[in-house]
Write a structure and sequence with these properties.
Layout (H helix, E strand, L loop, with lengths): L1 E6 L7 H10 L3 E4 L10 H13 L5 E6 L3 H8 L6 E3 L3 H9 L5 E5 L5 H13 L6 H11 L4
Parallel strand pairs: 1-2, 1-3, 3-5, 4-5
The protein binds D-ribose.
Length: about 150
């Protein structure tokens, strides 16, 4: 798979751990920035990753900001995207298995590099269960038309 990564200055601290998880699993990555600690606006990087997924340039994505909250809220405003804010390994698993999320978001100010590595590996290694969960995901997406 090809995985798009986007972050702001608050999340960049986790980027190397996320890249290591992707590479250790044998996947490729696209680093869509940011690239240093200069203050930037996380919605811009959420949009870059969402656009890459919707264009078929990436299969999944990882977004990083200070808490993971802002960048996940931004991503979930993009039609067609399901982004899960993840702070534990079980949620990383469920975000793929039950929610079929294309993206997880984590926070550089609340999650350690080791945990970000583990959560990324779990998210990327877990398959969507389908079945009753597919119906529920369909219902989530139908809310976009409300
Ligand atoms: C940036 O200071 C910070 O607000 C951002 O990284 C993120 O935590 C927002 O949710």
């Amino acid at each position: 798979m090809k995985i798009a990564i986007g972050c702001d200055h608050g999340g960049i601290v986790l980027k190397d751990n996320v890249i290591k998880a992707i590479v250790d699993l044998g996947h490729e990555f696209i680093d869509l920035g940011c690239y240093d600690l200069s203050s930037v606006d996380y919605p811009d990087y959420a949009k870059k990753v969402c656009d890459a997924i919707l264009a078929g340039e990436a299969d999944k994505g990882v977004l990083l900001c200070g808490t993971g909250i802002g960048i996940s809220i931004a991503a979930n405003k993009v039609k067609g995207i399901r982004c899960a804010h993840v702070t534990d390994n079980f949620s990383a698993q469920m975000s793929a298995e039950h929610n079929n999320a294309q993206i997880i978001a984590m926070g550089g100010r609340i999650t350690s590099g080791e945990d970000a590595y583990t959560f990324t590996k779990t998210f990327l290694s877990t398959a969507f269960a389908g079945g009753r969960h597919a119906l529920r995901v369909d219902k989530i997406m139908a809310l976009e038309n409300n």
